[in-house]
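worker-03 picked up job from queue 'complexes'. Input manifest follows; two sequence lines, order preserved.
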Amino acid sequence: MAHKILIVDDEPNIVISLEFLMKKEGFEVAVATDGEEALAKVASFNPDLILLDVMMPKKSGFEVCEALRGDPSRAGLLIVMLTAKGRDTEVAKGLAIGADAYVTKPFSTKDLVVKVKSMLGVG
Amino acid sequence: MKAIHRFIVAVIILGLLMTGPFVVTSLLVWLDMKDFEREVLLGLLVSRLPVGTMMTLFGFAIGVLVLHRLFKQYVEGLLRMSETLRLMLGANRNFRVTIEGPPEVQQLALAANDLAQQRDLLMDDVDAQIGRAKASVEEEKNRLAALMSELAQAVVVCNLDGRILLYNNRARLQFKALAQGPTSVSGGALIGLGRSIHSILEKSQVEHAEEVIRQRLAAGKTAISNFITTTRGGQLLRAQMVPVLAAGAGEGDPAMSGYVLTVENITRSIEQEARRDQVMHSLTEGSRSALGNIRAAVANLIDYPDMEPELRDRFVHVVGDEVAKMSQSLDQTMGEFSDSMKARWPLEDVLGIDIIAAAQRRIDDKLKLPTKTEELDDALWIKADSFSLVFALVYLASRLQDHYEPRELRFRLIAEGKLAYLDLIWAGPAMSSETFYTWEIDSMQVGSETTPLSLRDVIDRHGGEVWYQREKAAHRAFFRFVLPVATPEIEQEQDERKRGGGRPEYYDFDLFNFADKSIDLDRKLSDLTYTVFDTETTGLEPSNGDEIIQIGAARIVNNRLLRQEVFDQILDPERPLKPESIPIHGITEDMVRGQPNIDVVLPAFHAFCEDTVLIAHNAAFDMRFLQLKEERCGIKFAQPVLDTLLLSAVIHPNQESHKLDVILDRLGIIIDKRHNALADALATGEVFLKLIPLLEDAGIVTVRQALEASEKTYFARVKY
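worker-03 finished. Artifact:
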């Protein structure tokens, strides 16, 4: 059974690339464009891994991450944070609140695919 | 015993000496004689007695004359000399004893004169030394003042109580700009001699800085302390404190007697830094996201070359879209960034004609090329860096000389809205725009002087433009510099105004009740700090709705009228002006509209005159206007009030008029302007300063005495 990936980003220009890429890699993909929708999609879609942008309207990626980590039933959910902020302090914060990986834009799509696959234990 | 009594005693003694021995001898002989011998003697003597008496009287008279002469010469002569000596000691230093009388007295007089001569030489020497010392102190003071006023930093010197002893113009301007409300209202109320620095800088911070300095002094380190403070208006100030050490402290720790503060308003530079930060941020992190989108899309396009055309188009569109957005944001941030670059180029307000005069001098000096001027707007101020602008003009002149050899150059300066046109004109053949283009972008050079800047750089930094233009009809051409016009503050020239009968004297306000005990009434009049003020009003009846339309005030500190520390504000009375009053005060509807009202101005004036004794001419009138507004503004003028009208009446009770004009005339004070609030306040201040010594002569030395004396005349006038 294919792993399920939820892409959360408010910018359609990155969503289109990520969605295309992950589908090509054989994952089942769902998309959310803000923090609140992301939490709803996690409940309905039940993803294995979530690609989570930090800067979003309504709820930021940090808030979504904290909410998910506060839910023990989602303990196995993998969270990869995507951010346009490259500061060390923000990387540290993301990892501290429970992200499994932190990727800074612009990133190599190949590296991202490798990272996602290794986290999910495929490939 | 008086000299004349002693003379009389001496005469009596002489008489006794002349007659006594004869009488006594005769008596003894008479007692020893037999009766017949006595009869023979009597017979012999009586007939000759008149001769003996005559001789005795004659001798006595001669004796008296001799005695009188001696008395005149020695006793009275010496008395006269002692009076002369007293005179020389006191009133007239140059007086000398007349050499007269007997030789002994003359010797004494000569010795006294020599002594006086010696004393005069010594005194002259001392005077000269004092004079020299004073002059050098004065010179040092002037030098210090000049230095202070030239400094680009705001400098304030305070004593340990935080009272301002000295400040420079820069500090005045800076703190004036900091004052709350409309800046013109405060009149720099925050800063002034004798005022407390704590009204500007947080007291606790100043004290902390003092403490730091004391510790550093004790530890033998450089005594300096820095702090950053915010004002009530939210401005950021950076202050640096260095101590003023007591002179002649000798050994041991030097004692601090005050401090020098250099204060810099860093609000704007902090804002600029924040803006630069923002620029950096939008250029780095702002690009990350867009670049990430492009990179992902491009990777997909490369990695999956066989994707459906529709998808491919979408990815290409993403790239196009993001690239466009990035370009736009780059343009925008660069635009903002170059703005802040420009802000760092220091432009100052200069008179356009000064620039032209400087350029003319340099062209004549360097190029030996004659110049003339045509139409010149001599009141036109421009924002410029005069050095680079003059250099640019001289550079163009030298290029023209090299290429076209014009016989002369001409300058023209005209205003065109918010722009100034500065033209450099010459007669000669047309030049190509390409030539001018290379002149524009080449580094400028005049003779041996070079600069890395091009004409274009200079123009850009002025936010201006320059172009080449031909006046075909006149067979000549010109370079036109377009520069932004500056609007420097120009002192408003106010017309002399006529005031008919002046204002009536009001007596229905009790001047002598005041609650403020912080001002020591037993200090000398010359020691206190005063605020002299005057108001202009819509009319003469405050209780019938007349309002203040202008307040002018100045401070007297240390017996000096401070013409720089003034309060000068027109108010909006919020009611129409009376047409008949306009010629009196010269303030029109146009002048009051848009001005702050009493709610803003009165608290500012209250702050201006805090902790000072108020002085006004016919103060009852002005105080009544102020008093009626106290409740509305939530303030109280509780300080003592002196009235120059009443004080003048104290000194010259028999004079008929105590109107300000009359007093000015009487005291020989010449004032060029009158009848606006500030000018009248200044005139009142001059009068008060002249009155102080006259009051002292009349035994009125303290404020309390002045108030009591005023009260007496006040009651006297009321009774009358």
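worker-03 released lock.
Chain B touches chain A through 23 residues (CB under 8 Å).
Residues 516 and 639 of chain B are 5 Å apart (CA to CA).
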